[in-house]
């Protein structure tokens, strides 16, 4: 099994070393080894709509009406969500909203409370 980091652009696990760089054969993205070390140290970084960094356990406020997929309800503007969890993926906030239940939100639709 390879100890090389996956491609930061497409996530491919088939990266290889070329001198002092890593190369992705699937998307042809190249990045330096220094960038890879910094990316591993940083971990998961999630920012809200205003650019403020978010952490697990933060409280956020919804800044846009959000339709709930598969239901007739809507998460209204100004809804405060407490004790969020950050996760990998497109919807990078995992939370529980009163009256609706567990759901995932995109960080671009919230601001830090």
Automatic annotation (TrEMBL):
It comes from the Bacteria. Coiled coil: none annotated. Residues 46-113 form the Protein YjdM C-terminal domain. Residues 3-32 form the Protein YjdM N-terminal domain. This is Protein YjdM. Signal peptide: none annotated. Belongs to the YjdM family. PANTHER family: PROTEIN YJDM, PROTEIN YJDM-RELATED. It holds the Pfam family Zn_Ribbon_YjdM.
